[in-house]
Design a protein that fits this description.
Elements lengths: L2 H40 L11 H5 L6 H17 L2 H15 L2 H18 L8 E6 L6 E8 L5 H4 L5 E7 L7 E7 L4 E2 L4 H9 L27
Antiparallel strand pairs: 1-2, 1-5, 2-3, 3-4
Helix pairs in contact: 1-3, 3-4
Length: 227
Amino acid sequence: MPATERGRLGAALRRWLLSGLLVLVPLIVTLWVLDWVVSTLDQTLNILPEAWQPERWLGVRVPGMGVAFALAVVLGIGALASNYVGNQLVAWWHALLQRIPVVRSIYSGVKQVSDTLLSEKGNAFRQALLVQWPREGMWTIAFLTGAPGGDVARHLPPQDYLSVYVPTTPNPTGGYFVMVHRRDVVPLTMSVDEALTYVISMGVIVPGGRKPGLGVDDAHAPGPAQG
């Protein structure tokens, strides 16, 4: 086989390999995560008495029964907590946990985070922003979380400063909480979901389908204008 044909065949094989990986890797990772979630939730069936185990009266193990059970438990607790009696029980339970020294600090922190992320009135990430990080001249996507409060507000006036979360890539659950002057922040029109996708994909998936430059020499546009 001539060298030119071998080169074309090699290039085609590399292209097919990359195309196959781009299709299979997201699918495999998604299936793996779903399998882990289902397997973990299936363990919740162990809290039931043996006579009530679905496998006992069905005669066969059905994957995913734990998901239905966990969902039923969450819905039941939610329905209970939504009425007056349930609210009183939740308040009593919360007060009890607040009296336990070590549990108090852990429970309070987790509850504040969950209230912010899961509450219908909460809005953890309010807006996508551009900030200079980790030094001047380098820009990254961040998210507005609020304004300085408490004792911090005496030193950093809320009317001048914003509370900002700078996520890491590709895992946005880790990051940095910083307080930035309003003049150093550039608001973005993209949604929070689009910005998160942009961060997780390390800039590969561009909101709006616009293609980024292919190299450092493709564009020499100036940095974002600051207002």
